[in-house]
Amino acid sequence: MKKASTALRADDARELDWWKNAVIYEVYPRSFQDTNGDGIGDLNGITKRLDYLKELGVDAIWLTPVYRSPHVDFGYDISDYMSIDPQYGTLEDFDRLVAEATERHIRVVLDMVMNHTSDQHQWFIQSRSSRENPYRDWYMWRDGRAGNASARRQPPNNWQSLFGHSAWQWHQPTRQYYYHKFYVEQPDLNWHNPAVHEAFRQVMAFWLKRGVGGFRFDAITTLFEDPGLADEGVLVDKDGKPMINAFGDPQLDGSKTDNQPGVHEVIQEMRAEADKFISSKFPGTRVLIGETYLHNIGDLKKMYGTPEKPEFHLPMNTQVGMINRLDVTEFRQKLIDAETHLGDHIPLLLFDNHDKPRIDARYGDGVHDIDIQRVIATILLASRGAALIYYGDEIGMKTTPPSRRDEVKDPMGIAGWPEEKGRDGERTPMQWNATRNAGFTSGTPWLPVPPSAKTINVRTEKSDPNSLLAWYKTLIRLKKTVPAFANGANIMLDTENTQVLSWMRQAAGAPQVVVCVNFTACKVVADLTLGETGMRPRKLKTLLKSPDGADSLVTSRIVLGPYGAYIGEVV
Ligand code: NOJ
Ligand code: CA
Questions:
Q1: For 16-74, how does the pLDDT look when each residue is reduced to its tens digit (9 = 90+)?
Q2: Residues whose CB is under 5 A from ligand 2 (ion)?
Q3: Which among 107, 357, 399, 403 is least surrounded, fewest beta carbons within 10 Å?
């Protein structure tokens, strides 16, 4: 048999750069499409919906974990990294999904959970079996706080789980505590142990050989903890009193368990591993995406690494998308940060995911939600870089949290009720049509289908040229076809305006394009010739405008309705 050449052809630059202007669509497999009637989405369901995703125009889908799991954290507690959970299908189903997606030029990106495993993983079962077991040091086992005899049952320090209460779990048979940043059933791995590194290189290779387009690295900033086990600081309110979180615990500052030294070296190692798998069989960059909740742009920049030691291609920029209120000045500043402080690096913008209430709950006003979602979609898809869409946002799915504690599926919502209702509200089934279960399942859906599915669904919106779905599709088409949108710079315009956010996309040799979004419920007029970066009065050709919007003709007078959006080419 002839050996496949691993050399890339000269014209494969497009394949290498695919991620730079990519639209990546997050699928929560459990909630996307069920095909066997058990009320839980599956891989065959995703395959079935690939034509929809192709029509929408996405370049890649990121699947939250589909590996074997007891599902305490709905897949983020993995018990075997080299298999598919039977609820989702088989390895054959997965290979078929990759093949069918590849045929449609859609890449499949997997979740890579390296901070912790399930407590049902063989590594942990071995590890907890005795202090002498070779796997003991794969996890974070520690003695209790020293002192008098009774103090042996005190956890080593005050660190807390993000899902409530102490992050240390006592294990009576071996009389030590283990550390878990997330649920008790998600013990943290010990990244000081080289065997853990090797195990994950093998896991990555297993999936890369099957043709995956890359990975999204879960909880990456929590891989390491302070080796001295120092207590974290307690946050205080303006009266100096400790702040209390939804679980009734003091709010800690995260200073000893997040973003600690060691993380960058691991990302460099995993990037080098992924880079080895660029081949002619599966051409193109295997993209590494980071779950990087970092509050300053300097820390985010470090996540890209250096030319000699590259790290993530696309660490998530949560600084823009999680502003959580329509404040023009703040948006402008955060977008300037992403454009200038990140240099040539490619920003990855996103507005929500399976851990955050959807866009309606964080930006909507209950009256103009669809218009506001158009505004958000415009910022997401008409800014420079890659964009992450959470399934259902393209049709305007609404956050629908449980109304009673006994309906909650996410354990975090049970522990934090009623202040913290958990994440069920943003994980409800995809709304395909107006039938009883919205076309998601023929059985009983694992989470109820929201009543809003009667009007907010793919079938209805497909036939309405003014729908949010139509808006997303057009934006994605523009992102892919307008030359200035390819990787043109973002230059903020009319920068004193506190009602309208305006920017220009500019690339050498391409017509400039201006984008304006109104952050208010009133009609407003923007003048892009104002201010330091003001442009000359020029004529415009409309590329896209809100359904009731005006055709603005000149850069000095852009008329926008309530939460209106406008995109025009400078002619
Ligand atoms: C972040 C994931 O997005 C979230 O869903 C999960 O619970 C935690 N990491 C733990 O893996
Ligand atoms: Ca199913």
A1: 899 999 999 999 999 999 999 999 999 999 999 999 999 999 999 999 999 999 999 99
A2: 34, 36, 38, 40, 42
A3: 403
The catalytically annotated residue of 73, 188, 218, 420 is: 218
Protein residue whose Cα sits closest to atom 6 of ligand 1 = 76
| 113 ligand 1 Cβ < 6 A | yes
Residue type at 279?
A: S
107 phi/psi in degrees, rounded to 5: -95, 150
Q: Is 316 in the pocket of ligand 1 (CB under 6 A)?
A: no
Tell me which residue has its CA closest to atom 5 in ligand 1.
355
Query: Among this protein's residues, is 291 annotated catalytic?
Result: yes
Ligand 1 atom having least distance to the Cα of 182: 10
Residue 101 host element (H or E): helix 91-103
Q: CA 190, CA 176: separation in Å to the nearest integer?
A: 15
| Pocket lining: 182 vs ligand 1, CB cutoff 6 Å | yes
In terms of DSSP bridges, do strands 500-506 and 489-493 run parallel, antiparallel, or are they unpaired? antiparallel
**Residue 548 neighbours by CB under 8 Å, 6+ apart:** 561, 564
Among the listed residues 332, 294, 17, the one whose alpha carbon sits nearest the alpha carbon of residue 302: 294
Lowest mean pLDDT among 38-42, 203-207, 529-533, 563-567: 529-533
- Tell me, in angstroms, the distance from the centre of ligand 2 to residue 86's CA: 9
Query: To the nearest 10°, the Cα dihedral for 149, 153, 157, 162?
Result: 180
Q: Is 355 in the pocket of ligand 1 (CB under 6 A)?
A: yes
Amino acid at 540: L
Task: Give the type of residue at 296.
Answer: N
Q: Are 191 and 180 in contact (CB under 8 A)?
A: no
Within 13 A of 274's CA, how many CA atoms are on the CB side? 29
Q: Cβ(101)–Cβ(108) under 8 Å?
A: yes
Helix (H) or strand (E) holding 377: helix 369-382
Q: According to CATH, where is 3.20.20.80 located in the chain?
A: 12-118+194-470
Protein residue with its CA nearest to atom 3 in ligand 1? 355
What average pLDDT does range 252-278 have in this prediction?
A: 96
Q: Tell me what the mean pLDDT of segment 477-493 comes to.
A: 96
- Whose CA is closest to 110, among 133, 137, 78, 87? 78
* 29/109 Cα distance (integer angstroms): 13
Task: Check if CATH label 2.60.40.1180 holds for domain 488-570.
Answer: yes
Q: Give the fold, CATH level 3, of 12-118+194-470.
A: TIM Barrel (3.20.20)
CB of residue 76 inside a 6 A radius of ligand 1: yes
Among 423, 427, 425, residue whose Cα is nearest residue 412: 423
For residues 85 and 101, what is the distance between their CA atoms, to the nearest angstrom? 20
